[in-house]
Structure formats: structure tokens, C-alpha cells
UniProtKB/TrEMBL annotation:
It holds the Pfam family HAUS4. One of its GO terms (cellular component) is HAUS complex. The gene is HAUS4. PANTHER family: AUGMIN SUBUNIT 4 FAMILY MEMBER, HAUS AUGMIN-LIKE COMPLEX SUBUNIT 4. InterPro entries: HAUS4 (IPR029327), HAUS4_met (IPR026214). GO terms for biological process: centrosome cycle; spindle assembly. This is HAUS augmin-like complex, subunit 4. It comes from the Eukaryota. GO terms for molecular function: microtubule minus-end binding.
Length: 241
């Protein structure tokens, strides 16, 4: 190695044991000991120089930046997919609840129009998505029944009904989510089921903390169960031996 690197290495890491410790800390995945670095000083200097160009995992600075960017894009797409999937499933639950209510009691005409429009929009959009070949490599694949997504989209409800449905959709979604949260609260704390709406609303603020506590308790019980299972197996082996 050229002597021109030595002043830089010395200024960054120092000499002797300090240099060895810094090199080992910079390459935790490298199977190298301090004794190896002591016996091979030139190799130690090479590793010290590499620390200016690669990170602790061995990736170059440019490659690490590209990897971070790709991971960020992947996380953004994942969050968008989770958001879309959660909303879609929530809308499906709303239509199912509507069908149950419709058979049990009378539903106001405006709600009938809202849910019928939403259900039809969901069905048409789902069918159009199934027919869309843009995400498949085989573009020559024949479509189902010879239909195209554009033809299916023509079955959407009238634009006026769609716009009216979209305008009232946030209010219905909020009500549906609130009912689900109240049901969840009643499951974990049945004593609150007959309380007033105001008290229930105040209790909903602490629902996330309640669920986190329940999750930790469940994980603790699982770990205890695994430990008891291992202990029982050992005791069984000792008894049989």
C-alpha cells in the first residue's frame, strides 16, 4: 500500500491497538481477530482505507444510497397497498352489514342508494382489475369472455350517483370504524358495554394502549407456555430414563 495513505489512516484511527479496534468495529461481519491485524499490518491498513468507501455491511456508499432509496420506495408502496387493502376490506364489511340490516329491518331510501352504488362500484372495479393485463407479461393472453376493462367500466353507476356516494363516503366509513372500535372495546372490557356514548368515546382514546398491553401479555403467555413445554419434555425424558 502506498505510504500516502498512512497519514490519513493515522489521523482517522490512530496507531496500534486503537487502529485495530476501529477496524474491527468497522467490519463486524468480517471474521478477523485483533491478532490477525497485528500479524498483518498491511492488511490492517487496507481495511482501514476501505472504511472510507464502504459501510459496516460492506456496501459502497453509492450502492448503500441506492439500496436505501429502493427500500424507501418499497416501504411507500407497501404502505399504499396496506391502506388500499384496508379500505377495500372495510367497504366490503360495510356492504355485508348493509345486506344483513336490509333483511332484518327497513333501510332508508338514501342509504339504499348509497350502499347499492358503492357495492356496484366495488364489483365493477374488481372485475376490471381482473381483466387488466398490464401487470402480466403475456399480453397475448385472451381476456375472460372477450371483455376488456374499458367495457366493464361502462357498467359503473351514473356519475351523479357516484359523486353523491363519494361525498358521503367518509362519514359512513368513520361511523363503521367507530362501531368496530366499540365492538373491540366491549370484547376486552365487557363492563363498558352498557355505558353512555360519551364514556365509550373517552375510553376509545386508550384503545391502542389496551391492545398493545394485551399483545404483550399474549406474547408473555406464549413464552411461558414454550418454557413449560420444554421443562415437561425434560422431566419426561428423566422419568423414562
Amino acid at each position: 500500500m502506498s505510504d500516502s495513505f498512512e497519514p490519513t489512516i493515522t489521523s482517522l484511527f490512530g496507531n496500534g491497538n486503537g487502529l485495530h479496534q476501529q477496524v474491527l468495529a468497522s467490519f463486524p461481519l468480517c471474521d478477523v481477530t485483533e491478532e490477525d491485524l497485528t500479524q498483518n499490518p498491511q492488511f490492517c491498513k487496507l481495511l482501514a482505507t476501505l472504511t472510507q468507501h464502504v459501510d459496516r455491511t460492506g456496501l459502497t456508499v453509492s450502492l448503500k444510497a441506492e439500496l436505501d432509496k429502493a427500500e424507501q420506495e418499497l416501504q411507500n408502496q407497501r404502505r399504499f397497498w396496506l391502506w388500499s387493502e384496508s379500505l377495500y376490506r372495510g367497504l366490503q364489511e360495510m356492504t355485508q352489514d348493509y345486506c344483513v340490516r336490509k333483511h332484518r329491518s327497513s333501510v332508508p331510501p338514501d342509504q339504499n342508494k348509497f350502499y347499492e352504488t358503492m357495492e356496484r362500484c366495488l364489483l365493477v372495479a374488481q372485475c376490471a382489475l381482473k381483466l387488466d393485463h398490464s401487470s402480466t407479461p403475456n399480453l397475448d393472453q385472451p381476456s375472460v369472455l372477450g371483455l376488456t376493462p374499458q367495457q366493464v367500466m361502462e357498467l359503473m353507476p351514473p356519475e351523479e350517483n357516484v359523486q353523491r356516494m363519494k361525498a358521503s363516503l367518509p362519514r359512513h366509513v368513520e361511523r363503521h370504524l367507530r362501531e368496530k372500535c366499540l365492538s373491540l372495546l366491549s370484547y376486552y372490557q365487557p363492563e363498558w358495554e352498557h355505558e353512555s356514548e360519551g364514556l365509550k368515546s373517552n375510553k376509545l382514546v386508550h384503545l391502542s394502549g389496551l391492545l398493545n398491553e394485551e399483545k404483550r401479555r399474549s406474547e408473555t403467555l406464549k413464552e411461558t407456555s414454550r418454557e413449560n413445554t420444554v421443562m415437561l419434555q425434560r422431566q419426561t425424558q428423566l422419568y423414562l430414563s
